[in-house]
Design a protein that fits this description.
By secondary structure, the chain is α/β, with parallel strands linked by helices. 26% of the residues lie in helices and 12% in strands. The protein contains eight helices and ten strands. The protein has a six-stranded parallel β-sheet, sandwiched between helices. A two-stranded antiparallel sheet has the order 1-2. The relative contact order is 0.16.
Length: 310
Amino acid sequence: MDAECSQIEVPAALAAELSQWRREVCVGCGASAMFYCPYCCMPLGVPEGVTVPRVRLPFARCDIIFDDAPKKATSIHAKVLAPEQVRLIDLFTAEGNSNRTLSRPGGSAKATGAECGNEHPGSGEADKSSVLREIPEYDPQITLVLFPDDSSATFEEVVSQNGLGPPEHLTLVVIDSPWKRAQVLRKHPRLANLQSIRLGHPPPSRFWRYHSEGTGCVSTVEALAALAKEVLPFKGGMKSAAEMPGLDPLMNDPFLFFFVRQFAYIAERHLSGAERPMDASAKQRRMEQVRQKDRSKRPKLRPFGPCEGT
């Protein structure tokens, strides 16, 4: 999976574009960020001549159950690129937390979805795009959860077995949190009875964030982009953006617009030939360090037999 990451070089055209992006202060919450505001889910510092795509998912709606730091999560990309279809369910914000989060970008507990910038101009219905604070009830007949558990099947298998309607009538639920937490959330009473689907052809991940689950895992936005492509045959195709020369088909997807630029930005900050956080060697080294640390924390077991003094 990750071995292919180190073989990708940033094309000159993309490197030139990156030099034009600027860190900017968000008018909604005052946070300074590059590419987009992770709290208000709005593009920031877009260079002249660059157009941020509006992506259309092949589903009626995508609900992202969010329980992670906004700056680290790629699911925010989905909200920025498909604001009318993507709804965030914020489980990360604690009531006593005064910091910026998805539900309160300015640190205010009274912030609403529209005030947070989660309703883009012209998006229409605020209740469909605003941030929720708890998992809603879902209709199991029209809802799928993107989650690779033992009971999951590919979208093609689910369609053929369950006779679901067209994809544009379905709701897709995605869990964006650290893996162990995601496994707990998948068993939530409002999610437990929903059908799980998995990727039929998981792509090689280009994600730079460390995880301890080994190869075969992709980031949330990579998974969404891959699933959308698998569902396309059932919709008859989808208009795609112009391809960026030098990047493989996975990286040409308009749904990976911000992911590609973050990848390139991180790659460009490392000297040529130097190890990058998305490289397989870097992830393996980090995994070994964590395992060694975990082993050192394990309690020492007493030897078999009677204890001293008994």
